[in-house]
TrEMBL record:
Name the UniProt record assigns to this protein: Cyclic nucleotide-binding/CBS domain-containing protein
Signal peptide: none
Regions crossing the membrane: none
PROSITE patterns tied to this protein: CBS, CNMP_BINDING_3
Residue ranges constituting the Cyclic nucleotide-binding domain according to the UniProt record: 17-93
Keyword entries, A-Z: CBS domain
InterPro entries: CBS_dom, CBS_dom_sf, cNMP-bd_dom, cNMP-bd_dom_sf, Diverse_CBS-Domain, DUF294_put_nucleoTrafse_sb-bd, GlnD_Uridyltrans_N, RmlC-like_jellyroll
Gene3D superfamilies in alphabetical order: CBS-domain (3.10.580.10), Jelly Rolls (2.60.120.10)
Domain CBS: 155-220, 228-284
């Protein structure tokens, strides 16, 4: 090798995904690299250009743009671009332009394809959208058992940190010395015994240094607290690896601090998951975010079913499957909202797009419709802003319908002007429903009180959840009315514990496991959760709060959890079997098609539901006044 090629190889082996390749392979790459110099403010690629090389930034910096001209990302030394265009169509979808004098290595397409085929770690890295973490659900192979692995198994080193007195320069130097892409910032304080203690105040990453310091020209002697992410999302060290992936995916994180007793034990990075999860991954989320149109999003619908079936075959539990499918559903909404704003222009005022029902609870499956709504800024005026949000809601709802999330027959969609309200109007509406719990209001509560912000000012959704929780907990009359309403859907058991089945229609002689099983269970868990002031959405997580509040007889919460899991899994396996057989999946099962084991345990689960509904009458007595 020539001296120049030795220098190229030495550079590449410092950065992912090349640092995971054997040294002879890096030498092979170095011998085929072409080098180009670009002055500042030069186009590397324009939209629609043919592309036949993977690009690695040797020095300088490059900005990546969306088709509409909006900034998508800023990249610096050691980072890649062009991989998505190579993988998809050999046409540039995200234009690239230098922001300073830059040297760029070009790796030929033929070599790029060969590396993808020969090395899984390389393929996984380049197939991951830089702004979205791929969702993965593990196979049962021991080398990649993410479903049963604790998150600590993914952490590769102890956390690197400095305190809040640190300057930006000191933080950058520390990250360079330690060879890390993130740094925790700790707040010093005195313990009760006078000793020094530290609590997590924030986190700063390589990306923060690029976008908040270099790009803005900020003084390097400024305090690091000025550019760090304050109060970052964290995860306890007893969580499972799949929970870490879902958390990083949901909040679009590349670094996730892991805590034990509120003290950091490590920082989980995207690359840690990629390294650990080497056998089986679901790429739905990254695929969704790469699609340039509704038409191409709609083509992904078969892949949703395939992901669902795969998780079932890998023995994922209902919480894992519901969480994964809900994240996929949210991502469809997020991409559609991106496309809507590209088409309609920036929104005239802030808003939050809500997911409702099973998606908000992380309990969505493949048989589902769409339930959504809009929270609008209090400055909203229908005559000024109404047409924009009508068009935005229509674009998203029509797109969801094309992607397999059918229109809600009850019109619980943002296309219905009744469900486009300002923040003040939503609070007034929820207060009225709780103060005047009429049948229609109670029906709405069973839908709208499971809400989650998926786009825009998502903190408004959290504030509404807090409003609901505080007000409901102080309203015994409302809780009693909601409890009575939760009794409307009864389990399908006769007097002698025989199944009571549908008597007419398309699903005659079958049991609807959602309407007669999981839905009434979710209803009664919601009542208990509101009563104890829980602010979480998922039924299993709500049960944890109910257990902590100690309002159920001993063992009853565990019975409820087991009943919900068993009925959910029978429903899930039935839908997966329908998909594999080429049938339209449904919530209806015929008892004679079930095994003796499933029939026997379904009866027991339904009996738990029945007993729990009777307890609702006792726990929340209804006065009728």
């Amino acid at each position: 090798m020539q001296a120049e090629q030795i220098e190229i190889a030495g550079f590449l082996k410092q950065y992912p995904p090349f640092n995971a390749l054997p040294e002879p392979v890096i030498d092979e790459i170095a011998c085929q690299v072409e080098i180009s110099y670009f002055r500042a403010d030069s186009d590397v690629f324009q939209f629609g250009d043919e592309i036949h090389d993977l690009c690695v930034i040797r020095s300088g910096a490059v900005e990546i743009y969306r088709r509409n001209g909006d900034l998508y990302n800023r990249l610096s030394e050691g980072e890649l671009f062009g991989q998505l265009s190579l993988l998809m169509s050999q046409r540039v979808r995200l234009p690239a332009r230098t922001i300073e004098d830059s040297l760029i290595y070009f790796i030929p397409e033929t070599l790029f394809s060969s590396l993808c085929e020969r090395f899984d770690s390389f393929a996984y890295f380049v197939e991951m959208d830089d702004n979205r973490l791929r969702q993965a659900v593990s196979s049962k192979q021991e080398s990649s058992d993410l479903m049963v692995s604790k998150v600590t198994a993914l952490i590769s080193r102890t956390p690197v940190w400095l305190d809040t007195s640190t300057t930006i320069r000191q933080a950058a130097q520390k990250m360079t010395e330690e060879g890390v892409s993130s740094l925790l910032i700790m707040q010093p304080q005195r313990g009760d015994d006078g000793s020094a203690e530290y609590t997590l105040a924030g986190i700063i990453t390589d990306r923060d240094l690029r976008t908040r310091v270099v790009a803005t020209g900020l003084d390097l002697e400024s305090p690091v607290t000025q550019v760090m992410t304050q109060d970052p999302v964290t995860l306890d060290d007893d969580a499972y690896a799949f929970e870490a992936m879902l958390t990083m995916l949901r909040y679009n994180l590349h670094h996730l601090p892991v805590l034990h007793d509120d003290q950091p034990v490590g920082v989980l990075a995207t690359s840690d998951i990629v390294r650990y999860e080497s056998q089986s991954s679901l790429y739905m989320v990254s695929n969704i975010m790469r699609q340039p149109s509704v038409e191409e999003l709609a083509r992904l619908q078969p892949q949703i079913s395939a992901c669902f079936v795969r998780m079932v075959s890998e023995d994922a539990n209902s919480h894992m499957i519901g969480s994964a499918m809900s994240v996929i559903g949210r991502t469809f909404k997020q991409r559609l909202l991106e496309l809507a704003e590209e088409k309609l222009g920036p929104p005239p005022l802030p808003y939050c797009f809500l997911a409702l029902g099973s998606m908000a609870r992380d309990e969505q499956l493949v048989v589902t419709d769409q339930d959504n709504a809009l929270i609008l800024d209090n400055s909203y005026r229908p005559e000024l802003h109404g047409e924009y949000f009508k068009q935005l809601a229509t674009f998203v709802s029509d797109g969801l319908n094309r992607c397999g999330y059918t229109y809600c027959t009850g019109k619980i969609m943002a296309t219905n002007p009744e469900w486009r309200k300002t923040r003040q109007q939503w609070e007034a509406t929820f207060a009225d429903w709780m103060d005047n719990p009429l049948p229609e209001a109670l029906l709405n509560c069973s839908i709208f009180f499971d809400l989650d912000g998926v786009w825009g000012k998502t903190e408004w959704a959290s504030q509404l959840n807090t409003f609901i929780s505080l007000r409901a907990q102080r309203s015994p009359k409302f809780l009693a009315s909601l409890a009575r309403n939760a009794l409307n859907r009864t389990p399908p058991l006769g007097f002698f514990k025989n199944f009571v089945m549908e008597q007419d229609g398309q699903h005659r002689n079958s049991i609807n496991l959602k309407r007669r099983g999981t839905a009434p269970l979710a209803d009664l868990v919601r009542v208990h959760a509101l009563a104890v002031g829980s602010r979480v959405q998922n039924s299993f997580e709500r049960l944890d709060d109910v257990v902590d509040a100690d309002i159920l007889p001993p063992g009853k919460a565990a019975d409820l959890r087991d009943a919900l899991e068993f009925i959910s899994m029978v429903r899930i396996r039935h839908q997966a079997a329908d998909i594999e057989a080429g049938r339209e999946p449904s919530n209806n099962v015929k008892p004679e098609k079930l095994t003796d084991f499933d029939r026997r345990n379904l009866k027991e689960a339904f009996q738990v539901l029945s007993n729990s509904q009777r307890f609702l009458k006792f726990r929340y007595p209804f006065s009728g006044r």
